[in-house]
Amino acid sequence: MVLVPVPAFQDNYIWLWHNGSHAVVVDPGESAGVEVYLADHGLQLDSILVTHHHGDHTGGVAQLQARTGANVFAPAECPDLPATRVVHGSQLTVLGMPCQVLHVPGHTAGHVAYVIASDDEPPILFCGDTLFSAGCGRLFEGSPADMLASLDALARLPGDTRVCCAHEYTLSNIRFALTVEPHNAELQQWQLTCEALRADQQPTLPSTLARECQINPFLRVRQPVVRLAADRWTASQPNGTQASRPDMTDVDVLAALREWKNTF
Ligand SMILES: [Zn+2]
Questions:
Q1: Is 152 assigned a catalytic role?
Q2: Which of 27, 98, 135, 171 has the greatest number of CB atoms lying within 10 Å of its CB?
Q3: What is the pLDDT of residues 187-228, one digit of tens each?
């Protein structure tokens, strides 16, 4: 099985997974790059998976479906797509493999993720704009509590799960993460690895869930060092208390990190 990110727009990845003859793509915001890849490799597109309704994830779905006859799977928040609706717990079969749907609200209200399990390869997580390497999606339609619950659900997947994010945001996310945790050795090492990959025009993805649990501040809101950084940032804001809040909840920490990152 081959897993490749097809670049699109400025920094999107359209993930394509194939077995040499049949393929599935995730969040095709445009169709051209996918069509070229399919033609170059002689692939039949079986399925199109959509994680959420944003145009840079859906713009190429109709054309790809019209040209290939692929089955489209999408959450209810994409009513304009000619799709089979998926909900939390939906079980699909993709290229003969079981694929589970998780509802992961926060970035959008109806955002879903797809988890593909296989007997002989590590699981694959297509998480759209919910989880990025060293970061998470902006909260356009959900609350910090929604996002924390979604990230916690993803963090419960096996550590060797391949994390397929929909954007190449890794280096800028790492710069923020290092501000939160300057002494995190795994994070420092991941920055060196990703700088080398990007200098070579290679993707930094997929990451693994085990790595993200070590380096991603949004998956580490229960770590004392992350809580302290979030607390200090909150207290330093113009409307902040200027005093430490030992009673910060996990949701408070995530909310502070997300707000901090928005202005970083
Ligand atoms: Zn989005």
A1: no
A2: 27
A3: 999 999 999 999 999 999 999 999 999 999 999 999 999 999
